[in-house]
Write a structure and sequence with these properties.
CATH topology of the largest domain: Rossmann fold
Radius of gyration: 22 Å
CATH architecture of the largest domain: 3-Layer(aba) Sandwich
CATH superfamily of the largest domain: Response regulator
Number of helices: 14
Number of strands: 19
Strand content: 15-25%
């Protein structure tokens, strides 16, 4: 298969320096602009993940100014942003555009496997360095056919894993007196299929911990009727509901649950209930909803790039945008932290192999914690900490308390897990 990488290698073997468009270039890369492509779901049902994009990019552009120093030379930096439209197909096409039309040196992507997986696949196929986050590592690594014995050559990812969210969720469940009957809302998408995996997902651990699973099967995203699931949950006596849902689907389910008299003691909808913007419209129905917390102003970490603490970054975001802080803010910031750090350490920012090597050697304390690809758990992956939170309404303002930190006691508790109602 003809790829940009093979074209570049063939030309290099002939003693020429070329661009992906086939034009001859000078044989030096000093002061050459560095192009960073960024694929993000700015529209569609995942658009809530992209809210911090503009603020983050403005922060980095302002501090980078006229360039970054690499091997004694200053290189201007250009960011090229592509909207995935919350579509895996569009994310793949966007990555191809960045590779073949924009000729980027580095690709970044974030916000669920619908974005990160197809972008990383295109980068790996075409020999372009790529960094992603905000997807549990199993749906990202194994969802792309990753081999733990081999890994990937150009693509690197950092986030928490299913083992972490399972531990956090069950840690919260154990704090509430229930009958241990759990209803699952897992969609037919990479996240839902990963979370429901019979070996790697929730089911085997739940059985070991004495929880009974009520799984009605995978449903399609943007479902407008959850009556079948609600009926099954009521019949089985479900007191805990867990799932990984896009915001529109959770709102539909939670509204219909109230209408049909289904009131669980614990409700955890990962993805959907991570955002204050999605929580606020629920009013009193938001009280007691619980969720995994990947980043918050309470996290005791600071940016390697701006020096801001987690709280200072959240405060700056709220002051600059008028919006409440969100978890993706920390991970968008850290994505660019890792990217700039790798670029500054690479021997040649225009060479994909050199840049991939620099990324692989990352050991950086970021605003979301330490990112070190040497630590695994599989090649090309670094893990970040995860704790548990519960929402409460302070008037019309949602407040997220940290209520479970057994796996990471360095992140302080700010509240106590309570049953809904």
């Amino acid at each position: 298969m003809f790829t940009r990488r093979r074209f570049m290698q063939s030309a290099a073997a002939s003693g020429l320096a070329v661009s992906a468009s086939g034009l001859a270039l000078p044989a030096y890369a000093q002061n050459k602009p560095i192009k960073i492509g960024f694929v993000t779901p700015q529209t569609g049902p995942l658009a809530i993940f992209a809210e911090p994009d503009a603020f983050t990019l403005d922060q980095f552009k302002a501090k980078i100014g006229d360039g970054i120093m690499i091997n004694g030379a200053k290189h201007p930096v250009e960011f090229i942003v592509k909207d995935s439209q919350s579509s895996s197909n569009r994310a793949s096409s966007a990555a191809q555009e960045l590779i073949f039309e924009d000729e980027v040196n580095l690709i970044l992507a974030t916000s669920t496997p619908d974005t990160t997986n197809p972008v990383a696949d295109q980068a790996e196929l075409n020999g372009v360095a790529c960094i992603t986050n905000d997807t549990p590592w199993q749906p990202h690594f194994f969802g792309r056919g990753g081999d733990p014995a081999a890994g990937f050559q150009y693509t690197y990812h950092f986030f928490w894993g299913l083992e972490d969210v399972i531990s956090v969720f069950m840690g919260m469940w154990d704090k509430v007196e229930t009958n241990k009957v759990v209803g699952a809302l897992w969609p037919n998408d990479p996240d839902g299929n990963g979370w429901s995996h019979p070996e790697l997902g929730f089911p085997p651990v739940m059985a070991e911990r004495g929880y009974t699973l009520v799984d009605t099967g995978r449903y399609q995203n943007m479902t407008d009727d959850f009556s079948a699931q609600i009926s099954a949950f009521k019949e089985a006596g479900v007191e805990i509901v867990t799932g990984v849902q896009i915001p529109p689907d959770f709102t539909t389910f939670w509204t219909q649950a109230a209408q049909q008299g289904f009131n669980p003691k614990v409700m955890q909808a990962a993805k959907a209930t991570e955002f204050p913007q999605a929580i606020a419209p629920l009013g009193d129905r938001a009280n007691g909803l619980s969720v995994e917390v990947w980043w918050s102003p309470h996290h005791p970490f600071a940016s390697s790039f701006t020096g801001q603490s987690s709280k200072e970054l959240a405060d700056a975001y709220e002051a600059g945008t008028g919006n409440g802080w969100t978890m993706p803010l920390g991970f968008k910031h850290s994505l660019f932290e890792v990217a700039i750090d790798a670029l500054q350490r690479t021997e040649d920012p225009t060479d994909a192999d050199a840049l991939a090597k620099a990324i692989s050697e990352t050991n950086l304390d970021t605003v979301v914690g330490n990112v070190n690809f040497a630590n695994g758990p599989v090649p090309n992956v670094a893990k970040t900490p995860l704790v548990g939170g519960q929402w409460r309404m302070d008037g019309s303002t949602p407040v997220l308390d940290i209520v479970e930190n057994s796996d990471h006691p360095d992140i302080p508790l700010t509240g106590e897990m309570k049953p809904i109602g």
